[in-house]
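Subject: Interface between my chains keeps coming out wrong

I've been trying for a while to get a sensible model of this assembly. When I model each chain on its own everything looks fine, but I need the whole thing in one frame so I can look at the contacts. Pasting all components below, labels as-is. Any help appreciated, I'm running out of ideas.
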Amino acid sequence: MISQNAKRSLNDMLERAIRASLLASPESPIDIEPVADVSQFSASKVVILSVSSYFFRMLVLIYFSPDELTKAHLASINRVDVTTMDTQTFFDVISECGNICCGSVNRDLAQVFPHVGMSTPNIVDKQCAHHLDVLGSSYQHHFAVTIPQGPRFHASLCLTEFEDLDFDIQVPEQQSSGELEMF
Amino acid sequence: MDSSAFIFLLGIFLGASLPAWFVSRYVRRNAANHATRAQALSLEQSLQDELNHLSAQLQDCEQQLSHARHVTERELEQLESTHQSALQQLQQQYSEGLGRAIGSFDSVGEEVGTLLGLVKTFERWHADMNVLIRHNREMHAMNDDFSTIVKQMVIVTLNASIEAARAGEQGQGFAVVASEMRNLASRAEKLSKDYRNRLYENDLITTTTFQGLQAGGKMIMGSVIGLNVINNKAKDALSA
Amino acid sequence: MAQILVVDDSSTVRNEVGDFLKSNGLNVAFAVDGSDGLAKLKADPAIKLVVCDVNMPNMDGLTMAEKVRSELKNAAVNIIMLTTENSPMMKERGKAAGIKGWIVKPFKGDAVIATFKKMVGA
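Reply #2:
Try treating it as a single job with all components included. I did that and got this:
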């Protein structure tokens, strides 16, 4: 069983992660709204990542279309030359965005679960996401992500718990990403 | 007998000796005037006896004191020896214990080092997953080819039905065959669609299963690394 | 001769970090995983700074850092991890391997360029 606190924490974590990975800076304008299911998504591809713990397994999915608007936006936030961006480079860029997104979720989860591991990203056809129910997840939450004058993404979170989950993860006061911590 | 008693007796002896000497001299000097020589001699003898007795007592005290000192010294020596022996034993036990603890840390370190080799297993699984994903992609491509062929079949059977209708009565047999072919093509098309959905489902299950293995592997490696760090810290602390 | 080696299995990260460093006048070499990173460092001992991901196939970044010290006997090169990970245990392992710093992705060049230049003596 997953408590309401835990569900709220997970949703907040994913929203923060989306801001960290799909925008030039977390403060840039973005609209993130919950949606009911994936069937309405128009995207053709999805990047999937997994997070594993002894207590749960979680999937993070970001849906996208390899269109010009998406390419231009991702090229700009990753400082890549869009004119030389071929399909493989584009997939590398979106995979890295997925990696940063899932990495943010992974770090937040590590506040409560000291032993968590994260996979590398994989890109599959969006049609695969229609079969999410076959994975037996007990909690799914989907978002529509709209960037003003930019592309539209969708995101999903699917969680299968092995033990009852009840946690409340606090938003860190200061985002430390990008800063060099010297030893 | 202790030293204070000895000093007391010595004091008594000296205290008795000095007046005794003075008395003796007085008596001898005044023997001719006051008492007979025999009386003086007798007095002297008494004093001498007293002196001898006190001297004997003093000697006795000295002997007792010496004996007590020897006994105490022996007891002290024995105590020191026992203490040294106990200390050596404790140090030896501590060294052996420390050696065993460091040995245990080394053993744990070796096991952890072996476990860290698990990363190669996880990488192999990751490589296997890439092979499977490539295989799935090929199956998609084959199904797409099949689907194209089926679509063409549907068109061909439709054309065949049209031609059969144009041929009129003579085309009736052909029309039946064309119709059957169209049904088969239609079923093949449905099968191809179902198969495509199954392939997408398969992609999802394959990808998420292997990602679960990969993430689970990282989680295990994280725990093992954590154990290694703690083990090394404990070993360094003990060896310091 | 390269001053900085960027090690990451993502071409996006290699290009982003590499382009930024080059635009700041630095010479950059690249490697795609820990094993490749070790080989590149062995071939070019003049490299003064390694910017390295943690999660990579064919040898992760922390194992690479350990081997730089133990197998290449290179105690001088500065190693900084650039990763999505932030686990205290990983950082402990990194410190034990003599790494100098840790950056959580995404990379923000302006925040680190001064320190990087100091490390390579530029």
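Reply #3:
Confirming on my end. Residues 98 and 238 of chain B are 7 Å apart (CA to CA).
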